[in-house]
Amino acid sequence: MIFNSYEFIFAFLPITWLVFFLLNKLELFKLSTIWLVVSSLFFYSWWNVAYLPLILILMIFNYLLGSVLRKSNSGRRARYLLVFGVAVNLAVLCYFKYYDFFISNINFAFHTNIPLLHLTLPLAISFFTFQKIAYLVDSYRKETEQYNFWKYALFVVFFPQLIAGPIVHHKEVIPQFSKALKVLNVENVSKGIFIFTIGLFKKVVIADTLAAWATAGFDTAGKLTFIDAWMTSLSYTFQLYFDFSGYTDMAIGAALLFNIRLPINFNSPYKAVNILDFWKRWHMTLTRFLTKYLYIPLGGNRKGTVRTYINVLIVFFLSGLWHGAGWTFIFWGTLHGIASLANRFWQQLGLRMNKYLSWFLTFQFVNVAWVFFRAKTWEDAIKVLKGMAGLNGFVLPEKFAGMLGFHGITPVKEMVLSTITGTSIIYMFVYIIIIFVIVLACRNSVKLMDDLKPNWQMAFFASALFMISIFNMTKVSEFLYFNF
């Protein structure tokens, strides 16, 4: 089940919410927590019930091991237990997500023929694996409390954040289960509905529209000219932006209906003025996890410049691998690592750059790097990049080529993307320009939610967005980060 489905919006969410607050009204607080856990497991099982035992076994295993680590002395035995627990979680992740990738590379390198398993990736395994590892490490450090099992279970499977984050920390949400759940809060409900609606609009109206153009360029077109290639790359750049920020808004909104405030995971990243700033704004809870549980344990920036640079590259390499079992993902992560090192070196030299130029270069780097992130094969990535570089020529529709009189531009009846999608290239261009302005000029949706003053105007605005979104839900499309 996904947020942008009729089943979730008109059945699962309202029923779960009503029963939850009815149980709280009757002061059956423990039962209301259990109800949320069971409902979240049902939400998870809707996609594939076969993997329900996996998440249950891992949840119980990590809870019990965390309890042992919290009570044990921080000696050799505790370190071995921690290593064992982390290894079990990573082994499960690697088996399902990376087995075929590793075997494919072994077969290629050594000319072997080891059979692939073609396993279906369990939903959310990348997210809840990191969440559980953080809990085990904090238990070893004596930074956890003796949490009630049902509250721990809710921390793991709470449906708004279960599928694609944010990667929540136990100290952020488990205390809220005790303090905030019991009483219906009208302000939280209004803000939750408001930001959920914005997120729904981002996903089904904006991201899904852009998805058709990106897919046409990356997966369907055999060759892309300059304009087609730039429309393709920008379509995906903004598709991913609105898809991920839409999910994040909907997760925050759904959680707020139950009086739970999830951490901000997305803070206008395309406004970033350098690559370090970008990673402080994009998938913020992933950046936080990698910093606290990987970068700092590796030594961070405490062991000299060379070691710092190596640590940064390791973090970004593994970030790419975490996103997907493929060399294009690894290359994307490594590109960001190299850019981060360049950014650090520039700052260490004390050099400065005009902020508008800095923003432009940052955005263009991110846009080009997304090509590798999106491409299914190296050939697809090279195809798009060659077009963006103008190596496949410059063409315009006949009526515009003649009108503008540009030399060296070949007139064609239809652009490649227009032929595939049936959409005018001019319409695409204007649409992307409008989206660009929205991204740069509009306030972050979380800030809009925090400043919300419920009134008739806001109610009308949210209702209009909701109705437009519902009428555009002609087909249910998954969020892009569900694949990671």
TrEMBL record:
InterPro entries per the UniProt record, alphabetical: Ac/AlaTfrase_AlgI/DltB (IPR024194), AlgI (IPR028362), MB_O-acyltransferase (IPR051085), MBOAT_fam (IPR004299)
Sorted UniProt keywords: Acyltransferase, Cell membrane, Membrane, Transferase, Transmembrane, Transmembrane helix
GO biological process: alginic acid biosynthetic process
Any Gene Ontology CC annotation: plasma membrane
MF term (GO), any: acyltransferase activity
Bilayer topology: Multi-pass membrane protein
Pfam families per record: MBOAT
Subcellular location: Cell membrane
Bilayer-spanning residue ranges: 6-23, 50-69, 81-99, 119-137, 149-168, 309-335, 356-373, 425-446, 458-482
UniProt main location, coarse: membrane
Family stated for the protein in its record: Belongs to the membrane-bound acyltransferase family.
Name of the featured protein: Alginate O-acetyltransferase
Source organism of the structure: Bacillus methanolicus (strain MGA3 / ATCC 53907)
Upper taxonomic lineage: Bacteria, Bacillati, Bacillota, Bacilli, Bacillales
